[in-house]
Amino acid sequence: MKRFQTITTVVSLLILAAIAIIKVQSDPLSTNNKFVAGDYRILPTSSDQVDLLGLFLTPDAIVGIPEQAMEYSRIAMVDPRYQKIPTYERFVTETALQWDPNLVLISPFVAPDTRFQLEKYGISLLSLGKRANWKDLKSSIQKLGKVLGKRGLADSLIAKHEARLESLDAIVEAQARPTDENRVLSYANYGTGGWGAGVGLSIDSVIKRAGLKNAALELNRPGAFAMSFEDLIQLDPDYIIVVEGKNGKPSSTEQTLIDHEQTASLRAVKNGRLLRLPASLLSASSQEMITAAEELHRIWRAAEAKRAQN
Fold first, then answer.
1. 185 and 123 housed in the same domain
2. What digits encode the pLDDT tens for the residues 89-101?
3. Does 108 share its domain with 181?
């Protein structure tokens, strides 16, 4: 009996040791995973991660990117070098294994089983967390800089972005307006129902940073939530933020607002007060959140100037 207990104890210790080894190997902050100079083989799992990596590294350090990055990552859209990077439609274990990355950036949407499988293969994983505001973004930049061995660059990037925010804050303060005159609503409708954006989403922070008031908060619904036409009519915001269409045509969201009898009567629709943002800015949760706030404030001011002339 004692011998059996001894064997059981030894086996248990060996299992725990194996798990510890896997965790050390998959931990990008461990001493066993220092990047050899220039040996970056990184695999992002979301478009915003592609933007963040672009702050630190050139495209040749990235082994693959999600297909949607070509529409939602600002840097991938403007830098032709990103078009040469292999893309994938859906992130699964096999996606990572085929490119042999030495670091995978994990998004909240990666399945737990996929994470487990990657750890089992000893692949280093890094979760940058959710980014809904500047505090979150700053934390992600610091964490990524630490892992990549580029803390100095991370500090300079943070200083640069904080300077942009301070500049925007100064402009907003100088042009302050009563909040009951700048109620805006971010709205999306792709034919299967409407969606609003409440607290906890990056666009909520973007709206506030642009000096505007998120009308959706009046419904007391956090995150992305289903929004009926009745909700829209109840809020009747001064402006509605919609995704920018392609090739000069209205997006499906904008077309729905114009065509539907109920929404056509909204002040923002009938008075032509729709604020159009590119998809890469409307959904930004990287450093492009700052660009989104700057652009939103700019197009809102332009709309206000036009409104004053009428």
1. no
2. 999 999 999 999 9
3. no
